[in-house]
Each structure stands twice: as C-alpha cells, then as structure tokens.
Design brief:
The chain is built from no helices and eleven strands. Strands 2, 4, 5, 6, 9, 10 and 11 form a seven-stranded mixed sheet that branches. Strands 1-3-8-7 form a four-stranded antiparallel sheet, with no helix packed on it. It is globular, with a radius of gyration of 13 Å. The mean pLDDT is 94.
C-alpha cells in the first residue's frame, strides 16, 4: 500500500515562495504518476500538478502554470512542488495523490 506524507506548508506573503514535499513509501516513483491537489475552504478539491517519472512528463493547471514546478527525487522517493509568486487564491490544503492513496495534506496560507 502506498503511503504519502506531505510537508512544507506555511504562511507566506503575496509573492513569496514555498516548497512542498511528498514523501512516498510503498512504491517507487517510476511506477505511477504522482499528483498534487489542493482544496480551499468551501471549494472542491482541484488538481494542481502531476508528474510521470517514467514518461518524463508533467502537467500543470492553468492557474499555476509558470509559477509552480513539480519535480521528483527518485533516490529519496520524494516529489516536490516548488511554488513561486504565490497569490492569496493559492491558499488551500495541498494533498499528494497516487492512484487511490492520499496524504493528510499540508496547509498553505498566502496573505495579501
């Protein structure tokens, strides 16, 4: 069973940066695509970014394209989400996902 643990969230001002980490256990990164989702209060969970290590491909939602970068460290089994130029609308709980497995999330709050 795949287990996911997110970390790296916090409070930043508009324009700031954060790097989220998703530690993956129970699988190597090259078997599955790993995705980041987020959920803001009162809103549905939405996909933010996804990486397929095996196929060397990435995906970004339009709302984060050019500001967020997803990457993977195969040796440490960690997926990162580098978030730059953060906006208040990026405030949400960010979750890591592999197939049907979810982490508990990490809170990102961007103040204006």
């Amino acid at each position: 069973q795949v287990q996911l643990v997110e970390s790296g969230g916090g409070l930043v001002q508009r324009g700031g940066s954060l790097r989220l980490s998703c530690a993956v256990s129970g699988s190597t990164l090259d078997y599955y695509s790993i995705a980041w989702f987020r959920q803001a209060p009162g809103k549905e969970r939405e996909g933010v970014s996804c990486i397929s290590v095996n196929y060397h491909s990435t995906y970004y939602a339009d709302s984060v394209k050019g500001r967020f970068t997803i990457s993977a460290n195969n040796a440490e089994n960690i997926v990162y989400l580098q978030m730059n130029s953060l906006k208040p609308e990026d405030t949400a709980v960010y979750y890591c996902n592999v197939l049907t497995s979810w982490g508990r999330g990490t809170q990102v709050t961007v103040s204006s």
